[in-house]
What we know:
Blueprint (H helix, E strand, L loop, with lengths): L6 H13 L3 E5 L5 E5 L5 H6 L4 E4 L2 H17 L2
Amino acid sequence: MWPTIPRDEAAQLAVLEQTYPRWRIRKRPTGMWTATRVVAPTASQAAAGLQSYLLLPTLDDLAAALCGQFLIAQTVR
């Protein structure tokens, strides 16, 4: 069973989902947050550090990591 997400986290989650549509974002039953990339990174993106899966303890941590991943995706093809 997936955890119920508090209203403040749900609002932040909605913003992240709209900002990063290439990622599927979920909260695990353990409370950890995950983001799975919808399209796998290219070989050069992967070599530059673009990941297909992120697992972080807070939604704020995940948001920061997604920002970094976005920069890699935009600069390396």
